[in-house]
Amino acid sequence: MNVHGSKYRCSECGQCCQDDHRLMIHRQTHSGEKLFKCAVCGKGCTTPRNLAIHARIHSEENPHRCRVCGKAFSQAGNLAAHMRVHTGEKPYKCSSCDRCFGNSGHLRAHERHIHSSGRPHRCPDCDKQFKTGTELKRHARVHTDAKLYSCRHCSDQFRWLEQLKRHLRKSHDEGTWFTCDVCENKFVACHQLECHSFQHGGRPRPRRRCVRWGPSSP
């Protein structure tokens, strides 16, 4: 009867609650206030249930398991998004082009990177602007001497991942080579193969071949 004629009625939307505690929690949906704080990271949640779901991130509790590949997730929504990998479903369509995505986050990233002209991320050192925070972080290495990528075979270090991949192919014969379809010559970078292909009167599509260890086989 409280549901139909409760004195615990929300003044914003008229929804009735069973008691004052549930009414207080409901009101947070309008105010944006997050009273329930995570003891580990301090993140705020609007309900105890949402806090319990968030806490699984820290406890590594993953009760939602994929029946196809066995991968487990902490939230049912993450499992539902993962299942689209197996079904091929792509329900999120870009409003500006024909691209479709299985994940709403991928759609937002696509719209921001491809269709948006805004560049909200500014470099504090040179004022250059970027569309995404990832692009800004990558650019920031230009202003530092940080070399994040180390070769597992020698002491060489590199600022960019692609530099490490080229080094592994050239110096240690490990990784993916770019091979000419006509003469079988190998190249460490795609653009080198494209330049070479002009010798054969065209630009054949690069053929990749993985070489993990030891000398390459014919």
Describe the overall structure.
The protein has 218 residues and is of the alpha+beta class. The protein is 37% helix and 15% strand. The chain has eight helices and 13 strands. It has a three-stranded antiparallel sheet. A two-stranded antiparallel ribbon has the order 1-2. It is elongated, with a radius of gyration of 27 Å.
How many helices does DSSP assign?
Answer: 8
What is the end-to-end distance?
Answer: 81 Å
Largest sheet: 3 strands, antiparallel
Lateral arrangement of strands in the main beta sheet:
12-11-13
Name the beta content range: 5-15%
Radius of gyration: 27 Å
Q: What is the typical, i.e. mean, pLDDT?
A: 77
- What is the helix content? 25-40%
Number-wise, the strands total: 13
* H-E order: HHEEHEEHEEHEEHEEHEEHE
Runs with pLDDT <50, length 5+?
203-218
Spell out the blueprint of helices and strands.
Layout: H1 2-5, H2 20-31, E1 36-37, E2 44-45, H3 48-59, E3 64-65, E4 72-73, H4 76-87, E5 92-93, E6 100-101, H5 104-115, E7 121-122, E8 129-130, H6 133-140, E9 149-150, E10 157-158, H7 161-172, E11 175-179, E12 186-187, H8 190-197, E13 207-211
Antiparallel strand pairs: 1-2, 3-4, 5-6, 7-8, 9-10, 11-12, 11-13
